Amino acid sequence: MHYSLFLLPFIAISQAIPLAPRQDSQALAPQLLEQIRSLNTAVTQLTTAVNNYDGSLFGVLPQGIAVISAEKKVDSLVSKATETAQDSSKFTAPDSKEVVQTLATQIGPIKDSLSALKTKYPAFKRTFTAPIVLKDLKTLKEHTGELIAAVKEKVTAEDAGLLDFGKGILDQAFDDAIGVYS
Question: CB 59: neighbour CB atoms within 10 A?
């Protein structure tokens, strides 16, 4: 008997064993909090990129790339935070409160970013990039809703009500910006 035939089943089994230990789902609240804090920085960078966009002939390409890059970073962080929330078990009451409070701090910066986009509509329209902004706004609204829904499943009932309130504020702000670009 060949030794290679004897070892073949063990190779298949060893491939199925994960290399890294599974992270305890209870430990995901701190990870989610860090992602939300990173999101705050990314939203601020997006607002800055939008405010710097002037639609000038020589600025369209670099400024447009800055806006698109910042938007993609925000969207990526929202998606990662959604995955983290979905993978987590229910949060403890203190974790629930901290996650919701940290998310609540995002409302102001997000509204500021959306206001900047509304203000810059003429510049985006003049450079024919308004349809791209509209598509990105719709995508960000959808992904933000998915994040809130994922977090809502993990927080206490009391904190879930606060998430609904915050979602209403954000939905209105997104709808206003989408209305300008539609």
Answer: 15
